[in-house]
Write a structure and sequence with these properties.
This protein has 167 residues and is α+β, with helices and mostly antiparallel strands. The chain is elongated and about 85 Å long. It has a domain of 116 residues. Helix 1 packs antiparallel against helix 4. The two termini are 24 Å apart.
């Protein structure tokens, strides 16, 4: 069984999860969340002893990470833009001057914000559904590949120990 150690480096403020084993050591570096997408970047180090299956898994993990970042960056930009437009309309409706906007920004009524959120989610429903379908597909692939890699590691570890005892 692998031992897991979590190390926090002060200089980079990154968390390193290291799985130590006799045969395979995998390192995953997790960075600070992106300011727009709020997704933490991952750096998965490739080992020269990785099997083709492990390499495929790591590439799919990195590709999925980039896909998440891209989607949430676009989504959060659209949300901010829609929120600004909503605020402008709301302030114009309430006839608040631009000098008083900073003071009354906190005064948006919950009912109006609920309408904004409902409309934003309704307008972006198809994009969210597409994202959900794609995420489920990618997640299934990741789980299947992870299971294959785990089985492969177990098999080779057992196979190697079995034949080393016979010799």
């Amino acid at each position: 069984m692998s031992n897991f150690a979590i190390l926090i480096t002060r200089r980079q403020f990154a968390i390193t999860a290291t799985a130590t084993s006799r045969t395979v050591a995998q390192r995953v570096y997790v960075g600070k969340p992106d300011k727009i997408s709020n997704i933490r970047p991952l750096a998965i180090l490739k080992n020269k002893n990785d099997s083709p299956l492990e390499t495929q898994l790591k590439e799919l993990q990195m590709d999925t990470q980039q896909w998440h970042h891209k989607f949430w960056m676009n989504h959060n930009k659209m949300f901010s833009k829609s929120r600004e437009e909503f605020d402008e309309k709301w302030f114009a409706k309430k006839q608040v001057s631009s000098s008083n906007q900073s003071e009354t920004t906190k005064m948006l009524e919950p009912e109006d914000m609920a309408i904004f959120h409902r409309n934003f989610l309704h307008n972006n429903l198809e994009a969210q559904r597409t994202y959900d379908r794609e995420w489920k597909t990618r997640n299934k692939k990741l789980l299947f590949l992870s299971a294959q890699v785990a089985f492969q590691r177990f098999y080779f570890k057992w196979f190697k120990s079995f034949f080393s005892r016979k010799s």
